[in-house]
Amino acid sequence: MSEDKELERILEEKRKRLLNRLAKGSEKSEKATSQRAVDDVDRTVLSLLDEKGREILSLAEQDFPEETRRAKLLLYALVKKGYVNGPVDAGDLYRFLRYLGIPVRYESRIVVADRKERKPLSEILSERMSELE
Fold it and tell me: Three-class SS of residue 85?
């Protein structure tokens, strides 16, 4: 009788170990599948963007990681359904993110070619204002 209890205890331990191993294996496969999906989304979205667009996306990810992840998923879905074709430039991406409520801050400058030299517009305006005074 004691041998039966001992055998049941051993079988129960083996069952628990097997269930744990199966659970861990399914978690790993789910994580691998979801990681592949995330990689596919990132690869598709990044392939659409130009250099400045990637820079804006990077700035958005730094400030709003969760919202940007959702925006990338939405853009990916629009591409897969055929609503977005071809490259997406920085301006389009910026407007898309603003439309979704992600206030990306992108510092930009207007550079003017004046007499064979390039100067920021702010510098030219300050020079002309000082001439008026």
Answer: coil
Report if pTM > 0.90: no
Name the phi and psi angles at 115, rounded to 5: 55, 55
Residue 84: DSSP 8-state = S
Rounded Cα distance, 89 and 104, in Å: 15
Q: For residues 23 and 68, which has the higher predicted lDDT (pLDDT)?
A: 68
Residue 113 to residues 63, 110, 120, 124: CA-CA distances in angstroms? 33, 10, 9, 10
The DSSP element (H or E) to which 37 belongs, if any, is helix 2-48
> Residues near 52 by Cβ (< 8 Å), separated by ≥ 6?
89, 90
Count of C-beta atoms within a 10 Å radius of residue 68: 20
Report the amino acid identity of residue 24: K
**Residues with Cβ < 8 Å from 55, sequence gap 6 or more?**
90, 106
Domains of the chain, earliest start first: 2-132 (1.10.8.140)
> How many Å apart are CA 59 and CA 73, to the nearest integer?
17
